[in-house]
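[Q] Does anyone have a clean structure-token version of this?
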Amino acid sequence: MSEARFSDLRRAAIRDTLRRCELFAGLPAADLERVAGVCVPKSYAKGDYLFREGDPSAGFYLVQTGGVNIHRTTPSGREQVIHVFRAGESFAEATMTMKGCPANAQAIEPTQVLLVQKNGFLDLLRRQPELALRLFGSLSQRLRLLVGQLDDFKLKDVETRLAHWLLRRCPDPASDQPVDIHLPMTKRMLAAELGTVSETFSRTLAKLRKQGLLEVQGRVITLRAPQRLRALLRRHLGE
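[A] Here you go.
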């Protein structure tokens, strides 16, 4: 394959990734091409860091394949997961206006991303106000995500936080039919996102399983009747 042909295929793959990302969905072809021109594909092995807390920002990222764990390390050395991003999702947009990255980004499996380079994208923003509006929209969604996580931390125990997390991902929390929830991360990372440790998380799962509320098979948690878990959550919250 000629170098020119390879370059064309790579550019087409970049455009396809941009179209699948909510941030750029529906963008006119000419604008999409300009954004593609400031993107660089990057590959990471499991465990590799894309950036660490305090690193200068190189831009923001779009996940093509794999997954990226955004986390911080507490003073006691425990990892606090903020979110795990998967294919089609963008992250680190806020770092475009920061001196340093506020968290760590680590590949949780072999991962391919697009780096939207900071300087090139800022130049595009100056010339294309629509892109700036899209970026603001993306940051607003991320803020809602973080606010939701803060609300979870206000809940009094791990059982309540886990029930809340599962029900938010259930299509119909009032259903009395089994529903499968596919975990986008390992149980250890989910435990960290819920503000606990693996041992406590495992005991909580076992307790809910013993009550007949759910079953666990690998990364799939089956809610046997979501309405029963919702009733438990309401009792915990005193509703």
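[Q] Thanks! Anything notable?
[A] The mean pLDDT is 85.
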